[in-house]
Amino acid sequence: MNGTGLLRRVAPQLLTLAAVLALVTVFFPSFLSVGLSGDRLVGSPIDVLKRGAPVALLAIGMTLVIATRGIDLSVGAIMAICGASAAFAVDQGWSLGVAVLLALGAGLLCGLWNGFLVAVLGIQPIVATLILMVAGRGIAQLITEGQILTFSDAGFAFLGSGAVLGLPVPAWAWILAGIVVGLVVRRTALGLLIESVGVNLRASRLAGVNSTVLLLTVYMISGLCAALAGLIVTGDIRGADANNAGLWLELDAILAVAIGGTSLLGGRFSILASLIGAMIIQSINTGILLAGFPPEFNLVIKAILVLLILMLQSPRLGDVAAGLLARRRRADETGAAPRPVQEAGR
Amino acid sequence: MLLHARGLTKRFPGTVALDNVEFGLAAGEVHALLGENGAGKSTLIKCLTGAYRRDGGEILLDGRAVDPQSTAHAQELGIGTVYQEVNLLPNLTVAENLTLGRQPRRLGLVSRRAMRSLAREMLDGYGLSIDVDRDLGAYSVAVQQIIAIARAVHLSGKVLILDEPTASLDAREVALLFDVVRGLRERGLGIVFVSHFLDQVFAISDRITVLRNGRHVATTEAASLDRVRLINLMLGRELAEETSHNHGRREAGAELLRAEGLGRRGRITPFDLTIRSGEVIGMAGLLGSGRTETAEVLFGATAPDSGTVRDAKGPLDLSTPARAIAAGFGFAPEDRKTDGIIGDLTVRENIALALQAHRGWARPIPRAEQRRMADEYIRRLDIRTPGAEKPVGLLSGGNQQKVILARWLAMNPRFLILDEPTRGIDVGAHAEVLRLINEMVSSGMSLLVISSELEELVAVSDRVIVVRDRRHVAELAGQAITTEAIVNAIAAPEAKQEARA
């Protein structure tokens, strides 16, 4: 996709993000201010970039899985497993490098397991990944022996709460991971083959696409992204909490992909749009907290905002809107020049 | 005449599914509706039952013009339909299924007692002794089929359309079903019977109507028709003169591939096949006879469980499509929509797909190169599309077929299988596909062309393999390739099994 094509693709998401930011600013005027504290950037936008990291990372892998017409419910549990593995390694006195490699390896292994169930055994993705979603937290508990495994390794903590060039490490992580995965799928033929399998698996196989390897790959990428998210969350709280690390984040990741306009029926996908979707979700989360609503309102307000966003992106509603606009334009045919019509998503 | 359709016409984008079709059904007759896939049988039925809106013609029921708007409306008018897949609800009881939507009520509540007695009444005369309180799913498909018929007859009562009702029944169940059908005929219903099984058609039908390519070919008394003539009508030999085949125009090349004992249990009986370079092998047979199955084992779409395929260098691994493609094979499948095109992707991406899959994900075809390929094939094959970036699903059937041909031409395979390459495409595209076949062969490619159009096979083939009952039964070559010879080989189980020239 060239520059203008890409911009047109993510325009609805960018507009939505701008609208959410504007809305929050109304309630909390200093929301958009960014300052410098020591060598660190501080302010709500930076906080959004940091807090949104786990969902953004998960959304990268989830986008690819959903593009193949699959879904990965296990990413939250994989975060817990990987966080627990790394905490266990540090606790044993192993080096940080070993801990990180162990976590990434565990993520890849979990992805391989999901991919095996889906691609080789032909189990429906929602059922296949549900298995690890349930079992994963149990595995994580076994690793931490049922406790919250805390540690004091400064390097590990840096992964969750440190900063490089003023920007928090978690923000760097999802931005870099997004760029790397985005380039890999678009500069190689992986993106085309993933979309092809997502649209029509049978026809793709008959055209020679090795769908088995492809499906294994996307679930492994998803596992890897979940491992990164698990490392960040664990580093941030300096402890591995098998029960709560990444809890329900798989649903936010799916939501981010949906807000990003990738169809859950597979096919065309955009990682950039999913990442903007993740930032929209985090802006809502942070915004509701800052705007000073009583905390018991948070979930309801979030749900209403998400519903509004998805309704605005609904193609059916878009048709209705276009029809209304056309009628109005006919009505004042003699009047002023036609207003530019805003494309209401896909 | 109970039901009379006159000048029925139905168009779809790029094709005319029904062209001025005539169909009459008398009360008290079983009227078989025959034709190969794409002949227009199901379109005709869907127009009669209101599932499709017709584009032209009229439908008379009892002499009065009717205009069914939906299947429910058709049912009210008196036209009921039972499909191959029973569309009742297996987890409801027999009585609930029979009375669904019009359960007898008392004081606004469903009266189960009245419902049961109504259900028993409806089943009366069908020779079934079953418990109407048991779940429908507890009974065999044949019984479910009969219950579906009882419901349709009760709701409509004049015309009963049976669409492939015997496809999943065994011989005893078919006999049971036919008893029911005969009973209904006695009661004066007009019954339309759609089936691919010619024996069953002859066993039950009074009259037979044959459709081909959306046109009415013939309506005759079943008793006055024999198998050979019927197959002739279905597969088509309406041209007055025998189409000339092309024997002698091409030099037979060296042997390219040899399949020995290749087969798959339950799909295709093991067969031998020799393929020379630069020849066209035609494959003829009725629907479900094993034509597509032959193609699928050759291409690895279903892995064979016996036999080998070898070329001059030795045995080939054809266990998956990707491996068959690596061995220089290509396959344009019969069902373009589900097996061929990737609908949401562009013409460019669809053309590049096989080549890209073959190169592997790490070696992408540069976009400019893809573009050049797409533009070249759009020009060469005269693909009618607004541009290379148009989703292929929006093109007409003929142009989708050309996109799939382009996908394989880009691979330059040595052996290309075309399964019904001209089905469902308009006359212009039809001629172009045949021209392309000749072009590919003269460049040295070998082709296996599966087709229901016998003239087409006679026109393009150097040899013709005839399949019947999942078995290769005859091979015709040279002067022996005539539509007549092919029809005889398809029809006659015993005669001329080895009709070689």
From TrEMBL, chain A:
Assigned keywords, A-Z: Cell membrane, Membrane, Transmembrane, Transmembrane helix
Transmembrane segments: 12-32, 52-71, 116-136, 171-194, 206-233, 245-265, 272-293, 299-318
The keyword Membrane is annotated on this UniProt entry: yes
Main location (coarse class): membrane
Pfam families, per the entry: BPD_transp_2
GO cellular component, one term: plasma membrane
Subcellular location: Cell membrane
Membrane topology, from the record: Multi-pass membrane protein
MF term (GO), any: transmembrane transporter activity
InterPro entries, A to Z: ABC_transp_permease
Iron among keywords: no
Name of the protein in its database record: ABC transporter permease
Organism: Rubellimicrobium rubrum
UniProtKB/TrEMBL annotation, chain B:
Keywords noted in UniProt: ATP-binding, Cell membrane, Membrane, Nucleotide-binding, Repeat, Sugar transport, Translocase, Transport
Source organism of the structure: Rubellimicrobium rubrum
CDD domains, A to Z: ABC_Carb_Monos_I, ABC_Carb_Monos_II
Signal peptide as annotated in the record: none
UniProt entry tagged with the keyword Cell membrane: yes
Membrane topology: Peripheral membrane protein
The protein's name: Sugar ABC transporter ATP-binding protein
Matching PANTHER family: CARBOHYDRATE TRANSPORT ATP-BINDING PROTEIN MG119-RELATED, GALACTOFURANOSE TRANSPORTER ATP-BINDING PROTEIN YTFR
ABC transporter domain ranges (all copies): 3-238, 251-494
GO MF assignments: ATP binding; ATP hydrolysis activity
